[in-house]
Design brief:
The chain is α/β, with parallel strands linked by helices. The termini are far apart. Zn(2+) binds at residues 647, 649, 671, 732.
């Protein structure tokens, strides 16, 4: 019999960019000085109010508060507890200081190195990495956070404050070694307890505290720190919901279940046996089941989920809470705005707002019975059947072609030493060759031309002529700067993944499917709904045109198979390995055509390579095997005198360096500035055999580097990489910067390379 008691429903977090990326535009207007702090705060308030309204309208019991940030929630936590580097000077918990941590420019206009950025676990969200320093007191500065809680509770008394847990905060920080960071746990827990007491004074009863590190392979000392840390967090009238996500607790189930908290949230999309977790939980605790995949855009199979939940509901009753698996931060806001998508696809989508409705339906189905949601169950099944019947969903010939890829170990036609000699004979590059990562500023003129073409205000010929004009200007600018290896600037590309998806079968594209990547930076991942096939060349004409304008080599620019996979919303009925192999096969054809067209250097970017790693090391080998194989399958068709480049950013390389070496790219460029070249240590310790281009200035901040700063970094690189295998380049692509920033930065970079080149000669 169904239970009549309503179930508690909640979310762990929600997209904070607002409708039509309202937060992005407000932030950038404020940073330019075009708008006031009051206007920025008003935009933030409106977005937060809309989030609460969405939850209340959907009948969600406990909406989140405190997950909203104007830049990054991890940096907010650092400010909340006074854990900011001394190089910034004294930092109260203010909005301008939050921006200084991310952008490196203080409120007084002084430039300093910003915090490093890193991928949040295995997502494409970039968090700011807190830097801990010795003798740094923990000082609670909670006014800004408490104001958010007051604001939310004025609209919904059940709003649930969200905090990043103390141990996860320490784990994700840097600056001190592991033991020194862990030694901060006791003092940090005391500060958390003070904050929780202040929340109790506001009438808060439940607080969500995120400890995603419990899904990782933690050292014993860190596991042992959980119980004493959480004993210190006990505050009268406050109940704690400990949340984990993105993975299974595995061997940490017993530990998590017995902690002195009042509830445990688990990611049911990564947990096979929910009853086994319930068995471990004391009778007084609630179990929050993250039953909806918080990173999947696909409409859930509600009938299957109800089958999973029913025995758990029978066992736990009102001790069962329902939620998405993780914060909905990783999803676009609203599928209802995608009216231009074909109906067969749109009816199968579930973005953040739709997840709220699905959550409500699941709760209703459990408490009132399946008949109460029979219409919705039938609609879901019919929508999926229509999608599965679409032409292009399954391509038998393509599947037969790509099924053999796992049976081979593709390789370039010659080892690196022979390829390097052939490439040097072809290009005759100097020592310390200079280049960029690929993109140049996407100017207002470029964006306007793209918009006009999209709106059919200009025709294809006019658009192509404008893009060629932009490419010619970029080539002239690079020659004037003195770069050795050029790029065409990617004027014609809206995004490094979407651009390729638009030319491949099996992809679809949204208008408003934006997801926050970092700060004000948003991405719009394409949707892979069918089998992926290349029906025509994608980049050859643009590359051939750019190369015709100069005698210097111009790199052909491609996004790699792993990155296209992980920076798309991927179909849920086929393994990621199989989809990646289809993309690799498409890129293999493109590389063959580029080489045949005379393009002698081809960059195949893989910034998402590490992002795909499973959280548990025991699962790494399988992923790394197929990810490396897909890349090698794509590039192995290139002749020996064609130089293959790849680019990676925001990655730690020491624990996967063998797999990076196995990619066998002739040149790898990496982001290293925010780590002050420390990421190079992995390559030096491993004795990485191929060429490396460590980024020598940070393109994610507005500062223009000086020659002295660049030279210091290059000399650090020379201490780790043989000069004959060292390239000089920025950290990443330049599309988000202005020409006023790009030109002097590249001129300084080239001047340093030329000066050091003369010294070395």
């Amino acid at each position: 019999m169904p239970h009549s008691t309503p179930l508690i429903t909640h979310t762990l977090g929600f997209p904070r960019i607002g409708d039509r990326r309202a937060l992005k535009w407000a932030l950038e207007a404020y940073w330019r000085g075009d708008d006031t702090a009051d206007r920025l705060h008003a935009t933030g308030h409106a977005i937060r109010q809309q989030i609460l309204d969405d939850h209340v309208a959907a009948g969600i019991t406990r909406p989140p508060v405190g997950d909203f940030s104007f830049y990054d929630h991890v940096a907010d936590t650092a400010l909340l507890f006074g854990q900011t580097p001394r190089r910034f000077g004294p930092m109260a918990n203010t909005l301008d200081n939050l921006f200084a941590l991310g952008r490196g420019r203080t409120a007084k206009g002084r430039n300093t190195a910003p915090l490093a950025m890193k991928k949040w676990l295995n997502s494409n969200y970039h968090y700011l990495v807190p830097e801990l320093e010795t003798d740094q007191p923990i000082m609670l500065d909670a006014a800004r956070y408490l104001d958010l809680v007051r604001e939310a509770r004025a609209a919904s008394s059940k709003a649930k404050p969200v905090l990043l847990g103390p141990l996860s905060f320490l784990w994700f920080s840097r600056g001190l070694d592991e033991s020194a960071r862990l030694a901060r746990a006791e003092a940090l827990a005391d500060a958390y307890r003070t904050l929780l007491a202040k929340l109790a004074e506001l009438g808060v009863t439940w607080v969500q505290i995120d400890e995603p590190i419990l899904t990782l392979d933690l050292p014993l000392a860190w596991l042992q720190a959980f119980e004493p840390t959480y004993h210190r967090l006990r505050v009268p009238r406050i109940k704690l919901l400990l949340t984990t996500y993105f993975g299974d607790l595995n061997g940490n189930v017993a530990l998590a279940a017995q902690l002195p908290v009042d509830g445990l949230h688990i990611d049911a999309t990564a947990t096979a046996d929910l009853i086994a977790v319930a068995d471990r939980l004391p009778d007084y605790k609630v179990l929050s089941v993250g039953i909806l995949d918080g990173r999947s855009i696909w409409r859930a199979d509600l009938a299957a989920l109800l089958d999973r939940l029913r025995p758990l509901h029978t066992r736990l009753g009102d001790r069962l809470w329902l939620a998405p698996s993780c914060s909905l931060l990783h999803l676009p806001l609203d599928a209802e705005s995608e009216s231009e998508l074909p109906d067969f696809l749109r009816r199968n989508l579930s973005f953040a707002r739709q997840k709220l409705q699905e959550l409500r339906l699941l709760a209703r189905g459990l408490t009132e019975g399946w008949n109460a949601i029979a219409l919705e169950l039938n609609q879901t099944a019919a929508a999926r059947a229509t999608l599965d019947a679409q032409p292009g969903r399954i391509d038998p010939q393509l599947r037969a072609e790509t099924a053999t890829i796992p049976q081979h170990s593709p390789a370039r036609p010659a080892p690196f030493s022979a390829r390097s000699a052939a490439q040097q004979a072809r290009f005759r590059l100097p020592l310390l060759p200079t280049t960029t990562i690929g993109s140049f500023p996407q100017t207002p003129e470029i964006r306007q031309a793209r918009k006009a073409f999209k709106n059919r205000e200009i025709n294809a010929a006019e658009y192509e002529a404008q893009m060629k004009s932009e490419i010619a200007e970029v080539i002239r600018a690079q020659e004037a700067i003195g770069l050795d290896v050029l790029v065409h600037g990617e004027a014609e590309r809206n995004d490094m993944v979407e651009y390729f998806g638009e030319q491949l079968d099996g992809f679809a594209f949204t208008r408003e499917g934006w997801v926050q990547s970092y700060g004000s930076r948003c991405v719009k991942p394409p949707i892979i709904w069918g089998d992926v096939r290349r029906s025509r060349p994608m980049t050859v004409d643009w590359a051939r045109y750019a190369q015709s304008l100069t005698d210097r080599p111009v790199k052909g620019m491609l996004t790699g198979p792993v990155t296209i996979l992980f920076w798309s919303f991927v179909r849920d009925d086929l393994s990621r390995e199989a989809v990646c192999n289809q993309i690799a096969e498409a890129l293999r054809g493109e590389i063959a055509d580029l080489a045949a067209a005379g393009i002698g250097m081809i960059q195949v970017d893989e910034p998402a390579f590490r992002e795909g790693l499973p959280l548990r090391r025991k699962d790494w080998p399988s992923y790394l095997t197929w990810a490396v194989r897909a890349f090698r399958h794509a590039v192995s068709i290139a002749p020996s005198d064609v130089q293959i480049h790849t680019h990676m950013c925001y990655s730690e390389f020491n624990d996967i360096i063998e797999s990076i070496a196995a990619l066998d790219a002739d040149v790898i460029t990496i982001e290293t500035t925010r780590s002050n070249m420390q990421l190079l240590d992995a390559f030096a310790d491993f004795d990485y055999p191929n060429a490396i281009g460590p980024g020598i200035y940070d393109i994610h901040a507005p500062q223009i580097p000086t020659e002295a700063e660049i030279e210091a970094r290059v000399r650090l690189a020379l201490a780790r990489v043989p000069v004959e295998r060292l390239w000089i380049n920025p950290d990443c692509g330049l599309k988000t910067r202005s020409w006023a920033e790009v030109t002097p930065a590249l001129e300084a970079m080239v001047a340093v390379a030329q000066r050091l080149r003369a010294d070395l000669d």
